[in-house]
Amino acid sequence: MPHYALPHEIMYHTGLSREMTEGARYALVPGDPGRVEGLAKALDEKASFVCSHRDFTTWKARVSGETVLVMSTGMGGPCVTFAVEELARLGVTSFIRVGTTGSIQEDLNLGDLVINKGAVRRDGASRAYAPLAYPAMADMRITLALEEAARELKVPCKTGISVSTDSFWPGQERYDSFSGYVRKNLQGSLAEYRALGCTNFEMENATLFTLTSVLGLSAGSLCGVVAKRTDSEAVAPKEVYELAEKRFHQVVKRALEMLIGHFMVTL
Ligand SMILES: O=P(O)(O)O[C@H]1O[C@H](CO)[C@@H](O)[C@H]1O
Ligand SMILES: O=c1cc[nH]c(=O)[nH]1
């Protein structure tokens, strides 16, 4: 029996209550709190601030007659568990991660978008919810809506499987860290994931996909490429992020319109 919050009950970490979220079923969940306002306003110019507590900054927007929350998760799997658990208690059923990522395939360029249909569970947090043999899979309808929106808007985009890590440096086989050391078991891991056809490194999909599946919820993920790891370990300049941001704003808005229009009853 799901444990929904009472109308005035304030969630301890996100600071949200059911009154504040107005029955929202959809939440866009970027990692960065600094991305929330722009994303909310791209959905709806009248979007408004709801609350900010710890890593979790929340705005609300209206899309096709529905309230949509935009809430940051902070970085990494543990933060995602707070966001999913507390938003679920407030009635949110569908989550779309809107993030940044490092591509590991040659044909994914800086500023392109990646839609993730699954994730390699190199996180720790999802293991509290399901054994490692359990797949981290995105919801098919959200994934299809994101793909269709990207196609319609002619945005360069590829669908694939991300590798979700708990560490930005050794976990993603980066040598430009303080010590420069990558443990032996992770040396060569980037080449191996590339050979396995994985598309990108990021840090939240595995936890998001596993939790939402286990809890009977839905999730999708759309990320902008800000590092092209086949060329360099560096994160690209601001202009690249701004190009990716413009693209993921357009795509996620169109995808939401499709989802709310077509899948309203089932999601
Ligand atoms: O831009 P966000 O959504 O935070 O996503 C990516 O950026 C952070 C690392 O720079 C990690 O959280 C990673 O998953
Ligand atoms: O390379 C990158 C870029 C963004 N986010 C990541 O997790 N890795």
From TrEMBL:
Pfam families attached to this UniProt entry: PNP_UDP_1
Reactions listed under catalytic activity: uridine + phosphate = alpha-D-ribose 1-phosphate + uracil
A GO molecular-function descriptor: uridine phosphorylase activity
Class of this enzyme: transferase
Gene3D superfamilies in alphabetical order: Nucleoside phosphorylase domain
Domain Nucleoside phosphorylase: 25-257
EC number of this enzyme: 2.4.2.3
CDD domains referenced in this protein's UniProt entry, alphabetically: UP_EcUdp-like
A GO CC term assigned to this protein in UniProt: cytosol
UniProt-listed InterPro entries: Nucleoside_phosphorylase_d, Nucleoside_phosphorylase_sf
GO terms classed as biological process: nucleoside metabolic process
NCBIfam families referenced in this protein's UniProt entry, alphabetically: PRK11178.1 (NF008383)
Protein name per the record: Uridine phosphorylase
Species assigned in the record: Dialister succinatiphilus YIT 11850
